Amino acid sequence: QWASVGLMPGAQRALLHLQESGIPLALASSTTAKALALKITNHTLLASKVNGGVFDTVITGESVSKGKPSPDIFLAAMKASGVTMDPKRVIVIEDSPAGVQAALAANMRVIAVPCPMPGGKKTDRSEYDGATSIISCLYDWRPDEVGLPAFKDLVGEVIPIDPWFAKGPVVKGFGRGSKSLGIPNAGWASRGNDPTVYPTALSVGWNPHFDSAEAGETESHSSNGKTLEPWLLHEFGFDFYGEELRLVVCGYIRPEAPFTTMEALIERIREDATQTNLALGMIGGSNDSHTTNNLRDHARHKFLKPEGWGEPTKKFLMRPTSILMSVIAIVSMLSIRNGPDGALLFPLGSVRDMGSHLFGGFYSFRFAVWSGFCLHMLQAAIVVKSALQSNLGIVNALKWGALTIFCGFSALSTVLLYGRSFIVKPLQSKASASSSPSSLTTEPQPPLVSSAVESEVTPQKTTAVKKRKKSGSKKNKQNVVSS
Fold first, then answer.
1. Which of 45, 186, 206, 230 would bridge with 276, disulfide CB 3.0–4.6 Å?
2. pLDDT digits (tens, 9 = 90+) for 238-284
3. Which residues are tagged catalytic?
4. Region 353-382: what's the mean pLDDT?
């Protein structure tokens, strides 16, 4: 199953950044060349440059007599790269304790990125003693701290990421207070049958861990699954238990961290809200308007829309104006088909006579009918374009276009209303932290374990969402595997 394993979060970003910065790169893997080829089947980025990847040098287990924690493989990679600098200037990124010890034995600096443990079990960081730094994922790495070029893609403190999606019903849940949350990611959310989209900050992890649960018996709160804690940055003034909550996550802010006081935690959460709104273009001050616009475009994703949203409904079809416009359009076109004197079925003849009288003659009446038809066709073209721009899909766009031919402005105004419903609700006060975050729990998944740039824990489907208001435990140390 190696070929189906994804890259670690942030791995592609880090490798491409280093390559673009002209930093020599080597891959030192204890695995065999044959096994490595299987691992990178769908990730040519991890191949050597001659095979379309980013690495100047690739060293596998057969190249050395001793594997990690022996330093041989890293020293061999350095030699094969033609690098003659002091090993202390070499940076190794590792996910295993043995790899960390190997890098230290080679007198190199090492960034440890421990593999996620099954079920969110805490990593024993003592196994990585001596590492230059220990981070939860490569999105947390700051290359400028070790003398390498800094990343250039941050919007404020937010790192744009490929979006991922989650949804589930709002339920009453664990009873833990919302003030005990960390908020390390940014994205968009919508709820229930309302297509309105709200900026959202959220925490992601294996059911937020504390030093102990309120009962003092476990570090887990009611669930052993992965948990999302979304905070919709809007004051609703009411609860919406039972409604579906939909999330598109498109930015990474920071890892979760322990706080010594509740005040420090709340202050950091408010800053997370500010950074979310800054990156998503809800407040001014973004340092990269192009990236901000790209992040804002995710608010238009069809995933955020309620099921069946955008389809012509029975309510629309039964609207008096829709019925009246359709009848007028159909009867008027039928009444002019046989000329001014041709025989017509009742009541078409009467309609033709009435129209001719009102417009001063049959031909004037026919011109008015055809003008109305052409106007409806123009409106239909506008409707199809607007529907596609509003992400209603090609099928719904064509349905609305056909209805507009008969219903005219009634259908046009409805589709334009769909387009306006994409408007994101602004934050009522800058970085307000008074509204309560919600919680969204996902089913457990088996961990995917591989080397530092060859594994990923991906979001799973959502089974529950909850909204909480009461304050819970004051213990706030958290350890989260985030993606």
1. 186
2. 888 888 999 999 999 998 777 788 888 888 888 999 999 999 988 87
3. 229
4. 89
Predicted confidence at residue 469, as pLDDT, reads 32
Residues 148 and 468: their CA atoms lie apart, in Å, by 43
Question: Tokens representing 137?
Answer: 């994922």
CA distances from 363 to 330, 352, 376, 377 (A): 18, 10, 20, 21
19-28, 132-141, 150-159, 231-240: which has the minimum mean pLDDT? Answer: 231-240
Q: In what order do the strands lie in the sheet with 91-94?
A: 91-94, 109-112, 133-134
- Please give the radius of gyration of the chain, using alpha carbons only, rounded to the nearest integer: 30
Q: What token pair was written down for 358?
A: 């009102």
Tokens at 389, concatenated: 């721009």
Pairing of strands 185-191, 194-205: antiparallel
pTM of the complete model: 0.69
Tokens in use for 339? Answer: 């000329």
Q: What is the mean pLDDT of residues 58-74?
A: 94
Residue with tokens 């990125």: 113
Residue count (the chain): 483
| Greatest C-alpha distance within the chain | 102
